[in-house]
Amino acid sequence: MKLQRLGGYAAIASVCFTIIYVIVRGPLADLMDAEKTMAASSAAPAHFVALELLYSIGSILAFIMFLALHERMQANAVYLTHIMLIAASVSIAAAITVSIGVLMGGIR
């Protein structure tokens, strides 16, 4: 399978995961207070774990999409695609790190 076709599928799946993420995060949108966040996290930890896993999967799909865009636009926008890949790499590393921290119970 070509990378560009895989990137197209990843873009569609990324949009679906973003919609699911927004729906799951809906009840947690007002959790800017640390006490409320800790209370909600201790009451329903599976909700937070699912949220972080969705974010990690969405980041991986976005990275695949950016790789496909890099292959497609390589000759026309060399510097832009390099910056895009660097930003996607940092995003995926941060998402996976936070997800592992939440799964191990260290970061909340």
Structure in words:
By secondary structure, the protein is mostly helical. The protein has one domain. 81% of the residues lie in helices and 0% in strands. The chain has four helices and no strands. Helix 1 runs antiparallel to helix 3, helix 2 packs across helix 3 and helix 3 runs antiparallel to helix 4. The mean pLDDT is 80.
Helix content: over 70%
Based on CA inertia axes, which overall geometry fits?
Answer: elongated
Mean pLDDT: 80
Question: Segments where pLDDT lies below 50 for 5+ residues?
Answer: none
Structural class by secondary-structure content: mainly alpha
Number of strands: 0
Number of domains: 1
The Cα radius of gyration reads 16 Å
Largest sheet: none
Query: Strand portion, in percent?
Result: under 5%
Helix-strand pattern, N to C?
Answer: HHHH
Number of DSSP helical runs = 4
How widely separated are the two ends?
Answer: 39 Å
